[in-house]
Amino acid sequence: MRDFDGTLAPGNIQENSFIPAIGMKKATFWQNNKTRAEKHEADEVLSYMTYMLERAAAQDVPVRKRDFAEHGKTVKLFRGASDWFDHINAYAKERQVKLQHFIISSGIKEMIEATKIGRKFTKVFASSFAYDANGAAKWPALAINYTTKTQYLFRINKGSLRVHDHGLINDFVPHAERPVPFTNIVFIGDGETDIPCMRLVRDQGGHSIAVYQPGSRSKKARAEKLIHDKRADFIAPADYSEGRRLDEILRAVIDKVAANHAVHMMERG
């Protein structure tokens, strides 16, 4: 499972075409939002989603579900990301490992699902809007910030994938009966907003990978700090091409999961 912004594609997904469409530069949009959130003691994710709607209304920019999808189609992914899912799934199948992909992101769900890889995920947990009878976005329905991201790790761990359903997520389920053990989870993220998820997965016996934009020294240094601070197990450039470091790390983890399962089956006799 992974974050989206900065992990599978450069920058924030809103920056590709939506923010230019509402007549703003990305730096101005995010700085204004930070100021708004501070003024109102507001969550920055809820604030930016509301700000999107306000600015769109002021600029007469449509915000229907299909409009967000059109913005999502403009997103350029990191190298190799479009093809990576098919060949890593094939490798997992060879090793008899059931591989699933999830997104946990503060970005806009409707945009993420419309990207070239939107159909590759079992579930996209991301910030989303509620829509009126005409399909226009009216208010934020779900806002996922850096701390609430961890909730969705437990949902995946327990198999509770319906966001509105809080029954199973709060029930006690023995670790051996959970459909996706934390030891089999790999979380891929790029920055500070991913630290709680990285740390949780790592502490529970899974693996965390910090990726950075290829060629960026500052982002590589940030990723290296996550290793130093014991938040991540590995770092790699966000290059998903077959045979590159990130691909090799994930293949090695798949091998480990397969080997652990084989040992477990032998122990059971």
Automatic annotation (TrEMBL):
Q: Which Gene3D superfamilies match?
A: HAD superfamily/HAD-like (3.40.50.1000)
Any one Gene Ontology molecular-function term assigned to this protein's record: hydrolase activity
Any Pfam family = HAD
Keyword annotations for this protein?
Hydrolase
The keyword ATP-binding is annotated on this UniProt entry: no
What InterPro entries does the annotation carry?
HAD-like_sf, HAD_sf
What is the name of this protein?
Haloacid dehalogenase-like hydrolase
Specify the species: Bradyrhizobium archetypum
